[in-house]
Amino acid sequence: MARVPPGRPAHRSGPAALEPAVDSGCAGLIPRECVAGGRLSGADPEAGVTVDRANSGWIDRGDLVAALDRASAKRVTVISAPAGSGKTSLLRAWADRPGQPRRLAVLRVPPGQHDTQAFWPALLDAVRQAAGPADDAAGEAGGSEPPVGPPGSDAAAIASQVLAELAGARDGTTLVIDDLHELSSAATAQLTRLLASLPPQVHAVLATRHDLLLRLHRLRLAGELAEIRAPELRFSEPETRALLAAAGIALSEDGVALLRQRTEGWAAGLRLAVLSLAGHPEPERFVAEFSGSDRAVAGYLLAEMLDRQPAAVQDLLLRTCLLDRVHGELADLLTGRPGSHRILLDLEDANAFVLSLDPGRTWFRYHRLLSDFLRLELRRTRPETVPALHRQAAGWFTRHGQGAEAIRHTQAADDWPGAARLLAGHSFSMMLDGQGQTIQALLRAFPPGTDHSELAAVRAMNDLFLGHLDDMAAHLAVAESHAETAPPDRRRRLGVAIAALKVSLARRRGDLTDVTEQVKFLAAPLARESDEDVALGRDLRALALFNLGTAEAWSPEGLADAERHLQEGATLAREIGRPYLQVGCLAQLGFASKIRSFATTQQRCREAITLAERYGWGAEWVIAPALVTLAATLIWTGELDEGERWLQRARQAWQADSGPDVGLLLHQVTGMLQACRGRHHEALAEFAAAERLQSQRAGSHALASQVTGWLLATQARLGRTAEARAAVEALADERAGSGEVSNARAVIALADGDPAAALRAVREVLDGTAPVVGYVTVVEAQVLAGLAHRELGDEPAANQAAERALALAEADRLVLPFAMTGARDLLAALPPHHTGPAALRAGILEVLDGSSAAARDPYPAAPRGPLSPSELRVLRYLPTNLSRPQIAGQLSVAPSTVDSHVRSIYAKLGVRDRSAAVLRARELRLLAVGRT
Questions:
Q1: In Å, what is the CA distance from 201 to each residue of 121, 164, 195?
Q2: pLDDT value at 4 more than 70
Q3: For residue 761, what are the contacts with CB-CB under 8 A and spacing of at least 6?
């Protein structure tokens, strides 16, 4: 064999080529590619990842090895990822796995391989080593070096010889070429022909830091090309945990997640962090501060990435590293040269830690650790350029309408007056787009004690998001004083923002009169001097409709117009591209729909929630009205568990908004849930909290009389009748004559043992002379009348009232009025052939009995055996008045079949009769409302 000439790097061939080598970029600290595989012990069951106690620090990435194994069914597999991603380690783990069915012909291309005459003989030698035991032993021993063709040798001829050797192999062979990116482009054409002509029993695996011009599109179209790229090689959180465990490093779950986030799962970054963490006295603090400025990471990136780039590329990376997102045009501005977009595309194609952010590949970002490292390098080598770069970036973002980023860069340039002007100018648009948290963050970035009068309106806006209404009013007063002295070009804009905030403040306070007055200004047409004025005018109209419709929806006197204004506002917001405002209108429309059927209300709420979730706003305060209204409709119809789940979501969204309206509704609906479950003490606390929030509103709440009525009724049910009666007598507003408070008087009378007084109390509700929130109040009055008649011993009148209540409740399948009033016995006493809807009655009784059982024993024992689907179908008929033959008729089965199923149900539930079976099934939640 010919020897390698002096000064030429030797190819590594055979399986030894995949052994770990010291990576110069890590200054001898870690193995090549930083993570390797192996057959390991000490499993992490969640991750499917194992660690080797004898080879500490290495982990086996079984899923990746399996993916590479599956790829062997294709003709060619390309593993393409940045330096330090674990490519060589993956190849080693795959090659070393037990039962490797193929012969491996392995070649690692040395750094800077530009001599194609050296590559092809080395590849031929690797194939020959894989062909026979004698040659394998020689290759493992490392006693010889790959041959080099003589000057002028024909690469095509040697490539043909490689193909002939592969075709003559007795068994399947896998040709592995690692570090292919080091190969000169002159060799790629011949390599493409080789790959396209591989014999059927040969599979090729190519590992590279970036894609080469191999023209493999035909293989891709034919389904003969498999690809493993950077996203697949990134460490998952369980793998990160396993790597730390292998090194004996204990981190909290949050610490593991943060380390994985900081490194973005990059294998080299994780391994470098592990080396630094070993023996560190405060590992959690280290992870919190870990970045690309870490000495080991910086050294790796300098050697393996930055130093390998041409001077123009290095300059671009350094000048744009201050940006969170990089655009080609912006990069041209910062570098003073054209062509930046092409460079960014090439860097992404080269897996150089640059990622495109959009399908058109116009915006890019740098890997977090690379960005940290570049910023460190910029401050170290060119500190004087940093402020100017920030100012240039701010100007570009301002011209392109990206206010938040413009403000951030202006702040970073220490231009605080300029940042204040920008924030004041852009905050109105940011408010309409729901960027409340962004506004808060930008305000916090100003130095302590900063007192820019232009920020007064912005601080008022922040107070609005936080629900600090008194502070908001104070900041608005300061903003109005400043507006009087502001330059003319900013005075009108500032006036518009102040007016918008005033109407929002009035809406949050529940002052419909003030909202109506303020809306007149917002809805007035602006002098349309430019397209910008036209857009502003439409923004203002959409905001006016949102505020007006919302105020009307929560006010007793404005409900009739609320739906129209909110629907118009949602349509306009969609047309002008303000989705946050659209979601706000739809969420409030869901609440305003309480005058509609529950089906309509639920549909509107779910539409609003779906749109909010599409934009990532499913847990923000803007959607809270729809969440809590949906929960309310479910609780009204007895779907208590589902309603409670939506209540929990509403509660989480409300935490960001301390205003009274949504909080009031949330407490009210929670009180409804507790009352329905018979937990009157808990219900009383919720109704009292809702009543307190009502007092914070400037105007009356649409549901004020309902909250007060239920509060008084719950007091009476708890035996506090004197307190409740005194509170009724003290009412001096419109609530005193409402149907809801009349019902509360009836509950107090029943608690005092005066059913005749109870009948007198509900008389005006039943004859329609008392104003009511909705027909649900009339349903409740009928139930109370039935209870009063029953107390008086008038069973026919009691049954008649119960039947009327059921008939009214049937459309929406109401359960709550019967549950809150304790009407179980009233409904159970109805004769078998009563005129009310039997299915609804049975469903209500299921809820009432199930709620009582849940209150007694929230964790009932499981049945002795699972009920079959057929048994469950029969079980659902047991609460009805149907006989067994009638049940058989409903199910189209023989009566004997029903008898058999009933006996089995009794045995499994551990009961002896039908009533006990129904009660036990309700305790186990095997029966649900609405089943027949």
A1: 22, 13, 13
A2: no
A3: 742, 743, 745, 746, 749, 784
